[in-house]
Amino acid sequence: MSMREAIAAALLVALAGAQARAEGPALGRAASAGEIALFDISVGPDGVGLPPGAGAARQGRLVYEARCIGCHGEKGEGKPNDRLVGGFGTLKGGQAAVKTIGSYWPYATTVFDYVRRAMPFDAPKSLTDEEVYAVTAYLLHLNGIVGEDVVVNAQTLPKIEMPNRGGFTLYTPGK
Amino acid sequence: MKRRQRADRPNEEEAAGAGLLHRRAFIAGAGALAGAATSGSAFAESLAVEPWMTGPGSPFTAYGQPSRFEASVARAYASPPNAPGAGAARTPLHRLHGVITPNGLHFERSHSGVPDIDPDKHRLLIHGLVARPLVFSLESLARYPMESRIAFIECGGNSAALNQPEPVKANVQTLHGLLSCAEWTGVRLSTLLDEVGVDSAARFVLAEGGDAASMSRSVPLAKAMDDALIALYQNGERIRPSNGYPMRLLLPGYEGNMQVKWLRRLKLVAAPAMTKDETSKYTLLQPDGTALQFVFPMEAKSAITQPSPDAAPRELGLYEISGLAWSGAGRIVKVEVSADGGRSWAEAHLQEPVLSKALTRFRLPWRWSGGPAVLQSRATDETGNVQPTRDSLLARRGPRALYHFNAITSWGVAPGGEVSHVYA
Question: What is the pTM of this model?
Answer without folding.
Answer: 0.92
